[in-house]
Amino acid sequence: MNRLLILPVLLLTLLVGTPASSADFQKGLTAAQSGDFATALREWKPLAKQGNALAQFSLGLMYDNGESVPQNYKTAVKWYKLAAEQGYDGAQYLLGDLYANGKGFPRNYKTAVKWFKLAAKQGLAPAQHSLGNAYNNGQGVPKNHKTAVKWYRLAAKQGLAGAQNNLGWMYKNGKGVSQNYKTAMKWYRLAAKQGHATAQHSLGVMYKNGKGVPQDYKTAMKWYRLAAEQGYDLAQHSLGEMYIDGKGVPQNHKTAVKWYKLAAKQGNAESQYNLGTMYDKGKGVPQDHKTALKWYRLAAEQGDADAQYNLGQMYRKGDGVPQNYKTAVKWYRLAAKQGNASAQTNLGVMYGLGQGVIQDWVYAHMWGNVASSNGSVNGGKLRDLAAKKMTPSQLEKAQDLARECVRKKYKGC
After folding, report:
1. Gap between the Cα atoms of 304 and 298, Å rounded
2. Is the dihedral of CA 52, 58, 63, 64 positive or negative?
3. How does pLDDT run across 213-239, given as a tens digit for each residue?
4. What is the DSSP letter of 21?
5. Burial of 393 (C-beta count, 10 Å sphere; 0-12/13-18/19+)
6. Domain ranges of the chain
């Protein structure tokens, strides 16, 4: 939540009947609302020193955001704490937020939860939402999905879009509540109608998959587009997929490339990989192996196994890059360790041919055997070919290595 938005919202709702409704405080508030923070600071500082909680909170906001003063989280904490100790919920919430994010000092979830609870019990929706997150993620408290749902629900009923979205997620996945797609849809829709991009995308996913509603690709596209136009990378990626598959819209590779590119530039690994395949195959763009390599590498460096395998292929063949068997082996191995059967097979082939590694039929057999256990027909063929070139003791060793590799989930093979 933008802290500056809290000032007009929280302060104005609490002015009437509080000491902060003094003329001096009002002068500061009017100045702050017009962007004159220097005047606001001048009016509020004496009040804050006299113990006025809203003035203390307001000074905390100014130091938190660096408005008319150098940004200083420690000073923000000082003023927030003074207001929080007087029971001011907005200060309690933002104090918790600073502790949760480790701004100005080491992150401390337990202390964050302490302040979130105090504000949440007073009914402050953002604090209730943050407390729900703490229980959902086990940060500062033991993980407890039921308690997370309780706090999300309280905030959601007050109209907080983030809490509505999270409550939808809990119902969709059956966390802390019985799985219920229709109820998930209800909460997603409430958040989506407020412009919450994640909820809009989730609503699109529900329509695409027919969860809680009849399957409807056109309505899925509507929600994906709303989220994508806000810059949400997952929605941009989903739009790209819809244009590739021709679901809800005519198939259009060029438009798919447009949306993949927007998501890829934000670091979305799946879009980076898909964009790589589009350039690799010349779909929606002229074929360009160098550009394909660029996008595959970005996805591969984020751990995308398919991108790692494709990078291995490009280095083995010399597509868009000088042929380099050692680098091919490096990328095959990374993908193989993630269980990619094609990479496991090709890594075995490299051992069989002695390309990029010392020729070794034992490891060729091992990787072929492992790949076969993952459904690779070519892996089985490699295993059988290697077996014909091995002694009984080598074969026994290769089989032992394959069993151990699977047991270790391909790590350290």
Report:
1. 9
2. positive
3. 999 999 999 999 999 999 999 999 999
4. G
5. exposed
6. 321-408
